[in-house]
Amino acid sequence: MSLMFSGTWDHAILAATVRAASEAKSTGYLGRTAIQKIVYFLQVAGVPMRYSFDIYHYGPYCDRVSQDVETLLADGVIQDSSAKPDKYSNYVPDNAIGDLLGQHQKVEDYESTIASVVKSLLPLDPARLELFATLDFLYRQFKAGGGTGPWKERVVEKFMTVKKDKFPRATVTEAYDNLVAAKLFSES
Amino acid sequence: MTGFRQPTYLGVGHEPKYRIRCPIHGFIRFSDPERRVIDHRLFRRLRWIRQLALTELVYPGATHTRFEHSLGVMDVASRIFDSLARSRGDLMERTFSTVAELRDAPLGKARQLVRLAALLHDTGHCCFSHAAEAVIHRDSDHEQLTVMALETPELLGAELDALFFHGAAEWTAKIIGGSQKEMPPQLQVLKDIVSGQVDADRTDYLLRDSHHCGVDYGLFDYRRLIECLALREDREGSGGLEIAIHRDGINAFEALILARYQMNTQVYYHRLRRIYDLYLREYFKARGGADFDTPEKVLSHNDITAMADIIRDADRPNLPQHYWAKRIRDRVHHREVFVTDEDVGEVELKRVKRAFEQVRQEYPNVDMRFDIADATTHKLLLPTDKERADRVEFYVLDKDGDSTLLVERSPILRSIPRWFKIVRFFADVPTADSSLRNEIAEKCRRYAKP
Questions:
Q1: Which positions in chain B touch A50 (Cβ < 8 Å)?
Q2: Does some domain include residue B387?
Q3: CA-to-CA distance for B188 and B196, rounded, in angstroms?
Q4: Which residues in B267-290 are b (16+ Cβ under 10 Å) and which e?
Q5: What is the mean pLDDT of chain B?
Q6: CA atoms of A48 and B148, how far apart (whole Å)
Q7: Which residues lie across from B376 on neighbouring strands?
Q8: N or C terminus: which one in chain B shows less Cβ crowding within 10 Å?
Q9: What is the separation of C-alpha B252 from the centre of its chain, rounded to a whole number of angstroms?
Q10: By the CB < 8 Å criterion, does A50 face chain B?
Q11: Is it the case that residue B389 has pLDDT exceeding 70?
């Protein structure tokens, strides 16, 4: 018996994300921060999952994702290939990944989205991921409050309040413009 | 008391002229439009969804339903809202009025939204609630189904907007199911009242489940706790509000967290409850997904119809689900042969997994099952935390306006485990054969040792 603890849909999405990262041939690695932010953006991109992200000190975060990663590690679905696991992680597929994904064939419907999000975000360092994910979170929060754009000034201002001096304003503004250019944000 | 505001209703026709008797909170009052929501077929359905699935097989009194729980949550949520408005109504009014749709009646509309969200938060539950949710809902859950019902005009959406105000359904959906990013910070506090650190949902189910199970673990002085809640502008200057607590409420808060912890260990994750949850999942898996492959189909079932199916299937040995149906109907269950401590981590999980595989190989004729259960007791930031992500800073407000982290004032909170995770093995051994059970249990313990 290979799978003992894992088997949910969310587990399968996490496993597919780890597999996509290993196939992306990226210079980046899928550690504890990266997996949080990538799963956040997968949800934004419409991949269904039960995770609920709230904003904390390092941007959007979901405790459940961390717990599920631990479950997948224990079950041999993924492994941490980091040379210094107490300092950083690098999740890669393990032997039982095929068993889990075999139970959730509908995950195939989302594989291209997962591959595309992973390919875009994996090369970014953790600080950059935090920057983009926090901006996205705040942008959506402002839009949810109703009213009309442009949103840039309000989002950047809020970002500076939340993150204080962690990122220079010019960096935040530039990142916002990048997200608009990538058509992820709309100013109207 | 310059901040005082009295309970505000939406206007004529919204007076709470009806009442219903609740075993926990006494009389719960509601208005005529709220009565029409309570009488709606989707809410009425909760009369036939039990709060605790098959827990009645352990605690026979636990036959209460999501219907009475939902009414209770509405009542507690209103009490919390009104308590906050008594001391900081001015701040609430000012904050809520910055949201365009609430501007004309900020307190009245916000209070109504809290009541609706509390009342309807469980509408999307499938039969047997959480027990078989992962199988029945698959890539969705009850919260998403509740939101769907609120956003669909033909289900609840149009009626809510017509009965209350335009946008009522959408805002209610956001309070119930929206993540933080879908809520403007000004209204985040409404979500916190329904489902936060000191919230109406948990308050009601701890008290109610204790009452019906006949245990005292979930009892705490919730009236005192609500009286001691405080409100202030959030520390990050986002324009939102933050719930805190006055010093006098620290003991009541500690009791709430302890109640959560003990109800988890004694009731919600009781070993027999867990094995029957497993049977329910296996039953629905074996039955196939055709009966639950659309939201409408999920909402067309309830515990009564599902239990009728189970009783029927228990007499039909040719069906794949027969084995599980018979176990549920006849209350014939696997016996626990191994359980870990309550804080099993990744390393121990791997060890336990190996032990389980080893024992299973040694007893190929004994059907063995495993179960992993985990729950969060609280998310409070502790002074010792290195990782601050996903931790909540909950504050005590002093009379002089100073504030300190609640956990710094409470040694009890610092010592209650934040979460628990346990693994159990169950074996299908006859009740009379205690020697086989003991033998397997001994091997499990030996193999799982570090």
A1: 141, 144
A2: no
A3: 10
A4: bbbbbbbbbbbbbbbbbbbbbeee
A5: 92
A6: 14
A7: B419
A8: C
A9: 20
A10: yes
A11: no
DSSP conformation letters of B21-78: EETTTEEEEE-HHHHHHHTSHHHHGGGGSBTTGGGGGTSTT---BHHHHHHHHHHHHH
Nearest residue of B to residue A53 by CA position? B179
Domain extent, residue B246, equals: 18-266
Specify which residues B241 forms β-bridges with.
B233
- Contact yes or no for A74 and B349 at CB 8 A: yes
What's the mean pLDDT in A72-96?
A: 91
Examine residue B96 and state whether it is found in any structural domain, yes or no: yes
Please give the Cα distance from B284 to B272 (Å, whole number): 19
Confidence of residue A28 (pLDDT cuts 50, 70, 90): confident
**Which residues of B have a CB under 8 Å from any CB of A?**
99-101, 134, 138-141, 144, 174, 178-187, 236-238, 345-346, 349-350, 353, 356-357, 360, 370, 372, 374, 376, 379, 388-391, 421, 423
Please identify which residue in the block is written with the tokens 């324009």. B239
The answer, for A46 touching chain B at a CB cutoff of 8 Å, is no
What DSSP assignment string belongs to B311-362?
Answer: HHHTT-TTSTTHHHHHHHHHT---EEEEE--TB--HHHHHHHHHHHHHHHHH
B332 pLDDT exceeds 60?
A: yes
The better pLDDT of the pair B100, B60 is held by: B60
Give the pLDDT of residue A26. 77
Which is higher by pLDDT, B49 or B5? Answer: B49
ipTM, two decimals, is 0.72
According to the model, what pLDDT value does residue B25 have? 97
- A2, A5, A10: which to substitute to probe chain B, counting the most B Cβ within 10 Å? A5
Which of A86-95, B55-64, B345-354, B373-382 is predicted most confidently?
Answer: B55-64
Q: What is the CATH number for B170?
A: 1.10.3210.10
Alpha carbon A26 to its chain centroid, in Å, reads 16
CB within 8 Å: A58 and B350 = no
Mutating which of A33, A53, A56, A105 best tests the B interface, going by the most B Cβ atoms within 10 A? Answer: A56
Which of B140, B180, B349 minimises the CB distance to A141?
B180
Q: CA-CA distance, A1 to A54, in Å (whole number)?
A: 36
Decide: helix, strand or coil at residue A128: helix
- With an 8 Å Cβ cutoff, are A161 and B357 in contact? no
Cis peptide bond upstream of A150, omega within 30: yes
pLDDT band at B386 (very low <50, low <70, confident <90, very high): low
Tokens at B244, concatenated: 């805190």
pLDDT of residue A149 exceeding 80:
no
Q: Nearest-5° angle of CA B284, CA B326, CA B209?
A: 70
What's the domain count of chain B? 1
Residue in B with minimal Cα distance to A159 = B238
